[in-house]
Amino acid sequence: MSVEKTESKPFTFQSRRDMRGFSFFVVIPLALAAFTATETGYNRTLGYSGAIIYISFIALVSWWIAELTTKLVWVSVRAYRPPLWIICSVGVTLACVLVVPLVSQVSYLFAEYWPTERASELLNHAATNPVSEGLMQTARAVIFWLTSNYAFDRLLNYPRFRYETQDLPQQNPSIDYIKSENELLRRLQSISSLDEIDHVKAEEHYTCVSGKGQHELIHYRFGLALKDLAGEEGFKVHRSHWVRKSAVFKTVETGSKLHIELRNGTLVPVSRPNHSLIRQVL
Description:
Blueprint (H helix, E strand, L loop, with lengths): L2 H5 L5 H27 L2 H35 L7 H30 L7 H8 L1 H26 L27 H5 L11 E5 L2 E6 L2 E5 L3 H7 L5 E5 L2 E4 L3 E7 L2 E6 L4 E4 L4 H7 L1
Antiparallel strand pairs: 1-2, 1-5, 2-3, 4-5, 6-7, 7-8
């Protein structure tokens, strides 16, 4: 295969990321709209085509408003770093407050101008019991928003309101990174082989991987990363730390505490059950 043919591949990692973004911001709300138009009485009131237009417009605008309000919450509480479900729940609840007048206005326009005899029933539906109707719509919005954000963030690795560690350097997207069938390497960008990894640290549902003077925070469980590193010459010195043997500079003992100092200056704690092992091998 020629170099020109390799470089002309149109479907890159970035384009796949763009497809995930398009799916999240367009396909998902439109799919929810199509389901709602089919399963509710809107199709009887406006006809199926009218119900699709009516629900799709509301769904898209509401979805985008939820993105803005959730991002506002995400930025506002950055110092506290709450979990994703809190950020999304508060953000979509705020969005529901803003969407109420929008839905009211759109319903009025459709009731007034849509060419069906039953279009006026749109206004009567919400007016019969506005409190219960509002609570029901809010509950649905919270469930849909939470489910979609968690699915794209956790399953599709499309970052949704993550708090990255501040000391991580920005990656250069122009580098042609070497990928591997190894899942840990597949998720990394600046590190292309396992023997370049010096230190792995668990950070809740994320893992910080260090090597070649780089640090990467990826959404990958620490236990799975250890399985990928099983054949490497290193050891788990703490429940949250793995180090490569060749990366160790010295051990540092302070009273009953033992640390490993890596060649890059990083101090890694050693759990008490591993003290004797570390003293033997280092």
